[in-house]
UniProtKB/TrEMBL annotation:
Protein name in UniProt: Histidine kinase
Highest taxon of source: Bacteria
Organism: Telluria mixta
Pfam families, A to Z: HATPase_c, His_kinase
Stored SUPFAM superfamilies: ATPase domain of HSP90 chaperone/DNA topoisomerase II/histidine kinase
Amino acid sequence: MKTPTARMWRNYACGWLAYMLLLAVVLRLADPSQQGYGWRGLVPMLWIVPQALVLALHWPLSGWMERRNTSFATRCLIHGVGAPAYGILSYALPALIYGATQPLSFYVWPVLYAMMSYGVIATTFHMIRANDARRRQEVAVQQAHALLVATELNALRSKLNPHFLFNTLHSIIALTRKDPNAAETALFQFSDMLRYVLDTEKTGNDRVTLDDELRFVRDYLELESLRLGSRLHVDWELDDAASSHLLPALSLQPLVENSIKHAFNPHSRPGRMLIRTRLDARTGKLVLSVGDDGPGADIGRVRASNGLGLRTVERRLQLEYGTDEGLAIETAPGAGFVVTMAIPLPANDKEFT
């Protein structure tokens, strides 16, 4: 694979070669009396080769200026001296070697032309280095942004895990007073859930399949059902085609936990929870929703609350997928509470139909 510098030198050599060919054609057309190309007449053009090699020194010179961060004025001064020196030496040196065959005024325009060539090559090399520096800066900004997102995601997970552990342990403690045998069963259930959490932490892979996340949610609901008994009734409407799609670990469980906390814990009446999964072919998203027939709430108060679960999931979706519409809440006083989470599917996901 060619590096950008190798490509630049290839273009530089091709440019000079094209210039020499163009010059040969022009010289030939300027003297129609010649029959065919006289190779001996083209020999003076070989002087262009050392000129091209000398002008190539602009590359290390521009690199030296870039490393020393020389000012624009200093660069203009260096080239202001270099251009006339190059123009004069380009024609003075052949004159010294072969002897001057023309009057001094003859060399004015060739010297000016050589100075112009110097300026074009110097400007081109400076622009190439400036463009490279801009690209490096863009890459550094992108890497810094990615690092910032990863750091915030880790921080959000660090918040979510203790939140989940605290609430679950609180449920087990409450169950201990009510039914010690059920509490023992809950502890075993809890150990399986901890293994899921620790496995995702250990591998460093934040993505799990929907099947794995649903299995974790079922364990969590079985644990809560030991405490809530017949008050908790869960209906499932699952799309089998969505089971293998990936989503952030511990993204569905906080929605279920939020429903348990607000729709079941404060009340003694039975309640119903509905968990749905589906693939939305129109939007190309994996859609998950958790709803309950609890007391609901004013949507403005929900948005203004300091609750950690939904807010953390919403922020994770924003960071992971760059969307501000990943989490939608439908609720009103007395009308239940439904949270819908939409996760974009990969564009090349062949399993999605």
